[in-house]
Amino acid sequence: MDPKCQCLQLSDGHFIPVLGLGTYAPEEVPKSEALEATKYAIEIGFRHIDCAYLYQNEEQVGQAIRSKIADGTVRREDIFYTSKLWSTCLRPELVRPTLEKSLKNLQLDYVDLYIIHFPVAMKEDLGMIALEDNSQYNDF
Question: Domain NADP-dependent oxidoreductase, which positions (predicted)?
Fold first, then answer.
């Protein structure tokens, strides 16, 4: 895969690879799989890595990115890293601390794109995923 030919230019002049590795996996998949899959994806040419705090594998994904930087496969600026803000953290005062927690888990200095994971706000006291009924949604 040639990443230079498979990017779109954003309005700010930066480029985003059109093909990315999604790192979500169900709970029964060992977290070590995220490490190995991410390293392999970078080795074969993926430059866009999509992860989220919700996936609970940021440490492994960050470790994979850092190891491919350390072995000279890529530079940090070659990787377009996307992370996501979960629905229980949409209040303005929670956005920055949530991003900082992701950066700490990743052991990276920045993310390239930070988006809202799911466009519905949920109360923070209901845990990460509380989708059993509609009572968890905040009033708009």
Answer: 19-122
Q: Name 16's Cβ contacts closer than 8 Å, sequence gap at least 6.
A: 7, 8, 10, 48, 80, 112, 113
Residue corresponding to tokens 């709970």: 27
Catalytic residue among 40, 55, 81, 110: 55
Q: Report the CATH number of the 3-136 domain.
A: 3.20.20.100
CB 84 within 8 A of CB 53: yes
Using the Cα atoms of residue 17, residue 65, residue 38 and residue 53 in order, give the sign of their dihedral.
negative
Task: Specify the DSSP class assigned to residue 125.
Answer: G
Domain boundaries, the chain: 3-136
The CB-based long-range contact list for 25-32 (8 Å cut-off, 24+ gap) reads: 25/55, 25/57, 31/56, 31/57, 31/59, 31/60, 32/60
Write out the two tokens for 13. 């002049």
Is residue 55 annotated as part of the catalytic site, yes or no?
yes
- Dihedral sign (CA 125, 129, 132, 134): positive
